[in-house]
Amino acid sequence: MATTRYLEMSEPDYDMISKRIRASYPDSCICWIEEVINPNLRKAYEERRNSMSEIQLFHGTSEEVVNTIAAGGFDPAYNKISAYGKGTYFAKNASYSFNYMKSEKNGISFMFLCDVLVGTSCQGSSNMNINMELYNSSVDNLANPTIFVTPYADGAYPKYIIAFHKKAQK
């Protein structure tokens, strides 16, 4: 069972997240940030991790699936467009994930900041099945990756939900 907790603007995590977002998405209008607390997903993620490296990456989504992801994690089969391989896509920059947020009728859009297991990466290609015996993820560019794809349902933990006013004016 997943629960969430709103971060206060005075908390160090709120400041860290907002700085990460504004590094690539400076005109963003953050409405709130929630921490996802899901012991079952965290446990599955930790069991998958073993000695794999991990990083925090962004994932833009729609409001209708935010609670589903927070409760059940990411489903790699959901992705139908596979530019860099089949799996769940994550981005180094919030500005990239911005394009995948769907504005709801109230103007609020959603993005996750996730702990993602990247391990050993291969160069991704269109509709590629990642060879999970050799690789843990695929990327857009081996030398300087900005997009990461994980084929594992438990390869990412949706740590924070970030709500934006996507059409806010300067």
Account of the 3D structure:
The chain has 170 residues and is of the alpha+beta class. It has a single domain (3-165), classed as Phosphoenolpyruvate Carboxykinase, domain 3 (Alpha-Beta Complex). The protein has four helices and nine strands, in the order E-H-E-H-E-H-E-H-E-E-E-E-E. It has a five-stranded antiparallel β-sheet with strand order 1-2-9-5-3. Strands 4-8-7-6 form a four-stranded mixed β-sheet. The longest helix has 13 residues, at 12-24. 36% of the residues are buried.
Name the descriptors.
single chain, 170 residues, alpha+beta, Phosphoenolpyruvate Carboxykinase, domain 3, 5-stranded antiparallel beta sheet, 9 strands, 23% helix, globular
Question: Uncertain runs with pLDDT below 50, 5 residues or more?
Answer: none
Name of the CATH first level: Alpha Beta
Task: Give the CATH topology.
Answer: Phosphoenolpyruvate Carboxykinase, domain 3
Sequence of strands across the biggest β-sheet: 1-2-9-5-3
Order of helices and strands: EHEHEHEHEEEEE
**Percent in strands:** 25-35%
Q: Please tell me how large the radius of gyration is.
A: 15 Å
Chain-averaged pLDDT = 92
Morphology call: globular
Largest sheet: 5 strands, antiparallel
Number of separate helices? 4
**Secondary structural class:** alpha+beta
Head-to-tail CA distance between termini = 39 Å
- Helix percentage range: 10-25%
Count of the separate structural domains? 1
Q: How many DSSP E strands?
A: 9
CATH-scheme architecture: Alpha-Beta Complex
